[in-house]
Amino acid sequence: MMQSVIVVRPLVTLLIALLLASIHVYAQPDTLEPVPAGAAPVNDQEAAPDLWQFEEDEDVETWGMLLRDQSLDLTLMGAFVILALVSFFRKSTSLKYVTLAVAVVYLGFTKSQLISVVNIYGLVTGNLPIFKYSLAWYLFAGFTVVSTILWGRLYCGRICAYGALTQLLDQVVPERLRVNVPTWLEQRAAKIKYGLLAATILYFLVTADIVAYRYVEPFWMFTRRGTTGLWIGLTVLLVATVFVRNLYCRFLCPVGAALGVLSKLTVFRIKRWSECNTCKLCEKTCEWGAIRGPEIVMTECVRCDDCERLYMDTAKCPHWLLIRKRNKVSASGVRVQSLAP
């Protein structure tokens, strides 16, 4: 835990400073370029096009041109996807927090690109970005869907820039400030996000007013554009997150609800030992309320790696401790038999 805090603390400090500074940044209106002193005035006749000159044929748009124009976005997005998968499969705490920091900086403040309830509405109505001009976005969205089907809510656990920000914040907040939500309340509050998803989509379908997404998602913060009321609401949400970890992601996020429904199709689920029926170690460790006795609730699990690292810890997981005990008993029994006359 101390190692992760040492790694994450400077990253979180930098990200929070970037967020606070960005609140004061506003777009400046474009200005006309001044005419250099002494420059000759432009003659209208000279500026007029030659009426007798045939226009040159426009270049025919090809996939090669489209790929070349979007090559940088595709490369960066592809590199980030690879980083996320490597950190996931390696089960490395350090790599995980590096991925979260990159998500905040790259997907958040640089690209302002997150999966939004607006995208879900666009999918329902068939109003998605034009494919050939949005290849990096489709790579991002496709990875989100495919990874959810394969492993569960991997997007929520280490890709979403807002979720990444709150997880980094969680590492530097003193444990004594945390409020542990009672299990009965946690399970009921987790259903709120499904109601928000249904209500938001219904509102979009009735009014076609997608601007309302700002009132159910805080993702607009990465664009640094919001009303005073929105900034106040965001501040209240972040302060509440200090006391209740991952508050928005666990209880209020409609995208998390949609991916939770999709995660019912998850192919590669987290393995469970027979000892998981009685052991409470992982259940107490889980920060998302996704472990309930012997069951891992895939709709709530974000594949944060915590329980999986415990599974692999032969000094803590009861599964390995019992195996070691059985091996000692078995070895001692063989020794006694060998000594018997």
Description:
With 341 residues, the chain is mainly alpha-helical. The protein has 2 domains: 2-22 and 66-175 and 184-268, no CATH class; 272-326, no CATH class. Helices cover 59% and strands 1% of the residues. The protein has 17 helices and 2 strands. It has a two-stranded antiparallel ribbon. Helix 1 (2-22) packs parallel to helix 5, helix 4 (71-90) packs antiparallel against helix 5 and helix 11 (192-207) packs across helix 14 (254-262). The longest helix is centred in the last third of the chain and has 22 residues, at 318-339. It starts with a helix and ends with a helix. The model is unreliable at 1-8 and 18-48 (pLDDT under 50).
The low-confidence parts are 1-8, 18-48
**Continuous helix count:** 17
Tally of DSSP β-strands: 2
CA-atom Rg in angstroms: 27 Å
Order of helices and strands: HHHHHHHHHHHHHHHEEHH
- Cα end-to-end separation: 53 Å
Shape: globular
Class by alpha and beta content: mainly alpha
Number of domains: 2
Helix content: 55-70%
Q: What strand order characterises the main sheet?
A: 1-2
Sum this structure up briefly.
The protein is built from 17 helices and 2 strands. Helices cover 59% and strands 1% of the residues. It folds into 2 domains: 2-22 and 66-175 and 184-268, no CATH class; 272-326, no CATH class.
